[in-house]
Design goal:
Blueprint lengths: L1 H22 L9 H11 L2 H18 L5 H29 L1 H4 L7 H8 L15 H20 L4
Helix pairs in contact: 1-2, 1-3, 4-7
Amino acid sequence: MLVYIQVLRFLAAFAVVAFHAWGVAPEGYKVLDPVVSPVLSWGGRGVDLFFVISGFIIYYATHRPPQNAGTFLRRRVERIVPLYFFVTLAVTLLGVTWPAVFGTPDWFTVRHVLKSLAFISFTDSETPVVYVGWSLEYEMYFYLTAALLMALTQNV
């Protein structure tokens, strides 16, 4: 049963990736709007579905076998942070190397990059260096909340 839920989560994540990819594609690569609009209108809803399924997966994973809050949080950080840091630093390097291509010559400040790496770029109403990283910021807070709840209810 869990395999089918994971497949559904993959489809939700793929819908989100497609939604963002088509939304930021250069003009020469965009698909005609009448063809894409119906599909993309549902792509953004993939975020909601993905988070609902992820909540179920987290509940399921933390109860079979039971794990403590520290282990749960460590496993999530190990899974997300290295790749996110790599992509953020790669985009920063590309943005600094070719600012005209990114259209944001003054955007890649040290402060902005550090806030993106700390998952707090939204505190100044900025998006992270990697735009879709906004969802990872919320995901990390979700994991922190889940770990806190696990720690508070460990002996209940």
